[in-house]
Amino acid sequence: MENRYCVIMCGGIGSRFWPFSRTYRPKQFLDFFGTGRSLLQSTYDRFSRVIPPEHIFISTNEMYVDLVKEQLPEVTDDRILAEPQRRNTAPCIAWAAYHIQAINPDANIVVTPADHVILQEDAFAECIDKGMAFVEKFPALLTLGMKPTRPETGYGYIQIEDENDEDIKPVKTFTEKPNIELARIFVESGEFFWNSGIFIWNVCTVIKAMQRHLPEIVNRYEQNRAVFGTPDEKRFIEENYMACSNISIDFGLMEKASNVFVLCAEFGWADLGTWGAVYEFSEKDRYGNIATKGKQLRYDCNNNLIAVPEDKLVVLQGVSDCIVVESDNVLMICRRDDEQSIRKFITDAKVNFGDEFI
Amino acid sequence: MENRYCVIMCGGIGSRFWPFSRTYRPKQFLDFFGTGRSLLQSTYDRFSRVIPPEHIFISTNEMYVDLVKEQLPEVTDDRILAEPQRRNTAPCIAWAAYHIQAINPDANIVVTPADHVILQEDAFAECIDKGMAFVEKFPALLTLGMKPTRPETGYGYIQIEDENDEDIKPVKTFTEKPNIELARIFVESGEFFWNSGIFIWNVCTVIKAMQRHLPEIVNRYEQNRAVFGTPDEKRFIEENYMACSNISIDFGLMEKASNVFVLCAEFGWADLGTWGAVYEFSEKDRYGNIATKGKQLRYDCNNNLIAVPEDKLVVLQGVSDCIVVESDNVLMICRRDDEQSIRKFITDAKVNFGDEFI
Q1: How far apart are CA B65 and CA B68, in angstroms?
Q2: Is the complex ipTM more than 0.90?
């Protein structure tokens, strides 16, 4: 256990969940299901069972450091990696790797987003154990692939080289979000798994791979190895982070490296990427309505997703197939099948009324 | 002018405007059109032009006295008639008559609800002048009848005896809210006017009429004439008001008395009885939407009435023919043609969640 580390990434803004998610309080800090714990807190809780809590790092944007401290008071300052700018996942994961290597050069690291829902926590823990054991032995970049349960078009897929009966298999290709026809073929073939975005690797393995595939990011870190773990690290990041390429770890590393493996797993996983995902994932009443929060009276209403503040009463009559979300100073009612318009709403709100509602 | 008095009745709860209107803040205290003045304040302003303001009395329920004082700080305590219980309009108007008679036995009184909209204030003022002059000369119970502009089924109608060319004519019958076919016939006939619920009479005339038609209410007052205008009046009302019949002045007096006249007028009048009335009355954009308050972004939305707090942004997409109202801790979205269900919503809210949302 002493070599196990975890990096929880929670620097995103989650605009697809506007207005529930706001610039000043993105989705990972929200309690979507009324459990009393935000997505970040749930993620931290989940990993605390399999990783020594003092080895769990939180990577976030500088503007959310206070929120992280508020939600996870047990996380000490030295375990919060505060990015001075948004730079996508590759620079963030590279920084975390160098930072952790300075602490423990034998570290095996699991890197995870903070906005997943996982239902079977025991199966999940077992899977992390298995992955950690694998990367300890083999210089592999391991990604968790989820057995697909439906032809979801909102996820990326991983195709496996089916050359063994083990859970861990070499990856053949990564595929971006497919259309519905392709998604159906993927699922039926049995060769494709959902790309969860959870990665496990030994710190030396990932740094070596990044040196090869992401030199424009890693060279800066490599030439300044001595600053990591020292008081100068913060200044160094502030001066250099902006210059890192804005690139995802999937595109920049996983799709290029040859030592990529997938751990095929099944533990009731969902990426809460959109309201649609929340709708699919949540328990519905017999009229297809989901009420995640607030008190409700519904009449002649079907297939709505309704989320309003806890202390509010919503009366809904004759409304179907809608998303009804209220949060702070914004009430949004839109058709469920038009939720991609939310980005437009945000732009229009900004253009017309400034930052007050963003 | 010294004999002119006014009684503004504002003790109702306005449940048809829930959740905008609440038990603790009924519709007459709300600013429906964003003018900066509530319906009560607008009514007071309007009558202040034709009645000496120190002769304007406010009749309200005890629970709204503080709201009245807050909204009309110029109204002194002695001009607020606080009903200890809800007893409909007859007991309230009777009390006001005895109260004012004790101050000025020659008083001519206009009695008015507080929830009307009147567009042509000059025509209105002229009409009050004419009515006051009439009841000074003749012992008539005068009601203002509005020339109908459409076959409205939400109003009561007054049929005139068309025996002269004057604006003031004897009343033939009062009619309750008609169905649409009947309403069309009424409007086409030219013999019917909307019953505004605004009355003008000399104090002696109305007391005499009530002695005849509402003895069960007025006898108590009559036998205790000496208390009106004294410090004992409050105690007397508290002890006797509850025993008064719960009856409207229309049913209890106007439909029975023989000396009832109607002053036919036209001054852009509306009784804001329902959301439908507000919808009909308000200016709409080219998509038929009315936004009385709050900031809005609308996409593919038609014929909605939207009222939310001033500081809130509403994003509405793909929603038509609805009432969208948010006020304090309640958000209501219902079909415009189902607004009669609001009473049911209130009952259900009370049964399920107690008084918190009523």
Answers
A1: 5
A2: no
β-pairing, A80-83 vs A168-175, is unpaired
B89-103 and B203-213 are packed helices; what angle lies between their axes, rounded to 10 degrees?
140
Q: A272: distance to nearest CA of chain B, Å?
A: 22
Q: Do A315 and B349 touch (CB under 8 A)?
A: yes
- Tell me how far apart the alpha carbons of residues B267 and B197 are, in angstroms, rounded to a whole number: 15
Could you give the count of Cα atoms lying within 13 Å of B65 in the half-sphere of its Cβ?
Answer: 13
The conformation of residue A138, written as its DSSP 8-state character, comes to S
Residue B163, pLDDT score: 67
Q: Which of B315, B322, B344 sits opposite A345 (nearest CB)?
A: B315
Q: How far apart are CA B358 and CA B353, in angstroms?
A: 9
B31: three-class secondary structure by DSSP: coil
User: Is there a contact between B313 and A326 if contact means CB atoms under 8 Å apart?
Assistant: no
Tell me the mean pLDDT per 10 residues along chain A, length 358. Answer: 96 84 88 83 96 97 96 97 93 97 97 92 95 97 94 90 84 91 94 95 98 95 94 94 92 94 92 81 89 84 91 93 91 89 89 88
CA distance A271 to chain B (A): 26
Pull the structure tokens for residue A286. 């017999």
* Cα–Cα dist B8/B154, whole Å: 22
In this structure, the strands spanning B313-317 and B322-327 are unpaired
This prediction has a pTM of: 0.73
Cα angle at B211 between B206 and B213, to 5 degrees?
90
Residue of B nearest to A334 (CA): B317
* Cβ of residue A329 closer than 8 Å to a chain B Cβ: yes
Using CB atoms, pick whichever of B319, B330, B344 lies closest to residue A333.
B319
For residue B218 the two structure tokens come to 């007025």
- Could you give the CA distance from residue A11 to residue A65 in angstroms, rounded to a whole number? 9
**Cα–Cα dist B110/B100, whole Å:** 12
CB contact under 8 A, A316 and B299: no
pLDDT digits (tens, 9 = 90+) for B253-264: 999 999 999 999
Pairs of residues, one from chain A and one from chain B, whose beta carbons lie less than 8 Å apart? 113
Identify which of B180, B182, B199, B204 has the alpha carbon closest to the alpha carbon of residue B191. Answer: B182
Query: Is B323 in the A-facing interface, judged by CB distances under 8 Å?
Result: no
Enumerate residues 6+ apart whose C-beta is below 8 A from A263: A127, A130, A131, A134, A142, A143, A144, A145, A167, A168, A200
* Amino acid identity, position A326: E
The CA distance from B21 to B23, in Å, is 7
Q: pLDDT: is B278 or B347 the higher one?
A: B347
Minimal Cβ distance to A318: which of B312, B335, B345: B335
A192-202 vs A157-160, strand pairing mode: antiparallel
Question: Do B334 and B348 contact (CB within 8 A), yes or no?
Answer: no
Angle between helices B215-222 and B89-103 (to 10 degrees): 30
Residue indicated by tokens 């012992």: B139
